[in-house]
Write a structure and sequence with these properties.
16% strand, two-stranded antiparallel ribbon, binds zinc ion, 9 helices, Rossmann fold, alpha/beta
Length: 225
């Protein structure tokens, strides 16, 4: 079966060969010069200014950069929304990897890398699971086993960006489920997502993993809003 989105993507690529989304130079989706302008966080800014009472299930939270940065926002938006430049996942996984390397994080205690899943409807719309795609490269780069299709999104929810703080929590409640409890029992998990705003999605995912027996859950996001 021909995937409609990848067909669309190929036609788009043929008509518009890759050029830097920021400066327009023809070589890659983001040239080295523009990539080097992205400010990556260092370890001393971890967990700062986060509402601890709201994020009870997360043992630690790391974010690689800020969503207010023009380049970061542009890359993430082009990756997530039509015409879905799936190849941007390589840039986003590089951001995560460079952040990990910069801070010399080894994640020795972690058993699995788990992507925050999209609903089946969102995956069909995009043609791929956008966080899973990022995690595929990233898990190889940091040498951590990737566990997919265990934590799943069983209920479609309205995009969080359309909602205010309190509504976000309500919107995402009960949206996740674990398909194989045995596999995560007593394990430490590094949960990956793209953007952290109120943390409602990350918290709900972590809560589900813990309800199904995970020991520790660390959150790692690309950008904090
Ligand atoms: Zn550029």
């Amino acid at each position: 079966m021909v995937n409609q989105n990848s067909l669309k993507e190929n036609i788009f690529r043929f008509l518009f060969p890759p050029k830097c989304l920021v400066c327009g130079k023809h070589n890659n989706f983001l040239c080295y010069d523009c990539y080097s302008l992205i400010p990556l966080e260092n370890r001393f800014q971890l967990n700062k200014n986060l509402p601890k009472t709201e994020l009870k299930s997360l043992d630690k939270i790391y974010w690689a950069t800020g969503y207010k940065n023009f380049i970061v926002k542009k890359i993430i938006q082009n990756y997530k929304y039509s015409p879905f430049s799936k190849k941007l996942s390589a840039i986003l996984s590089k951001m995560l990897f460079d952040f990990v390397a910069l801070n010399e994080l080894d994640f020795k205690e972690i058993d699995f890398l788990v992507p925050v899943p999209s609903s089946a409807r969102r995956k069909r719309w995009r043609g791929f699971d956008h966080i899973e795609e990022i995690c595929r490269d990233f898990s190889e780069q940091i040498n951590l086993p990737l566990l997919t299709k265990n934590l799943v999104k069983i209920r479609d929810s309205e995009p969080q960006m359309n909602l205010s703080g309190a509504k976000r929590k309500e919107n995402i409640q009960g949206a996740f489920f674990c398909q194989d409890q045995k596999k995560i029992q007593g394990k430490n998990i590094l949960l990956v997502d793209d953007v952290f705003t109120t943390g409602a999605t990350l918290e709900e995912s972590a809560k589900t993993l813990k309800n199904f027996g995970a020991k520790k859950v660390y959150g790692l996001v690309i950008a904090r809003d």
